């Protein structure tokens, strides 16, 4: 082993958002136990392509004694990961990911209708739904109509699932979380996926209005032209207004 440049992750700062994972083209990083971690020294070239993507500034390049970078090992690892993805494997020994943040497309069973029984079926089609936990790239984002909702909205608006139908859901609260993180994560999602439209649903309270601004900034930052609809709801659950910001 020799002293060389290599990535170091500050686990105190890392919140496991996973934005850095696709930026590491060597596949050296994984989410393990809810934190981004360097799997093995041999996979890291020390160039730091993942540095700029971390909203928590938890990644840096340092010089320390480490195993040499091994291109052949990287090639084998990437081939293995590609095979796993093709097979859809979720073997915990092969894919290290926090269960709560594992991307899933939710498929609905066929409806069973009982005599005199009616109910509202859930229209949720993706998991996770929290902006902080959402992956920057996922299959369900392809050609998606993205619904970005303040996390109080489903509790106030009784017909929320009618609004959700046919859309991919992300929820959050700009008052409780870092708005800059939201803007960065949303921009990454829009930039890295084929999002066809965005709708923001927020409450009438002042802190909620920031969600529409963050979505607007994220679309602009992504460099794409995407239509944005904004739906505002009262605390009593009534729709107050609808507006459209066309590209």
Quick one: biggest sheet?
5 strands, mixed
The number of helical runs is 6
Structural classification? alpha/beta
Radius of gyration: 20 Å
What strand order characterises the main sheet? Answer: 8-7-9-10-11
What share of residues are in beta strands? 15-25%
Query: What is the total tally of β strands?
Result: 11
**Average pLDDT for all residues:** 84
Spans of at least 5 consecutive residues with low confidence: 88-97
Describe the structure.
By secondary structure, the protein is an alpha/beta fold. The longest helix is centred in the first third of the chain and has 17 residues, at 71-87. 23% of the residues lie in helices and 24% in strands. The chain starts with a strand and ends with a strand. The radius of gyration is 20 Å and the shape is elongated. The protein has 2 domains: 2-100, Alpha-Beta Plaits, CATH 3.30.70; 104-245, no CATH class. The strands form 4 sheets. Strands 8-7-9-10-11 form a 5-stranded mixed sheet. The model is unreliable at 88-97 (pLDDT under 50).
Descriptive terms for the model:
alpha/beta, 6 helices, 2 domains, 23% helix, five-stranded mixed sheet, 247 residues, 11 strands, Alpha-Beta Plaits
Describe the protein's topology.
Layout (H helix, E strand, L loop, with lengths): L1 E8 L10 H4 L5 E4 L2 E4 L20 E8 L4 H17 L16 E2 L20 E2 L17 E6 L2 H4 L3 H5 L3 E5 L6 H14 L4 E7 L5 H14 L5 E6 L5 E7 L2
Parallel strand pairs: 7-8, 7-9, 9-10
Antiparallel strand pairs: 1-4, 2-3, 5-6, 10-11
Helix pairs in contact: 5-6
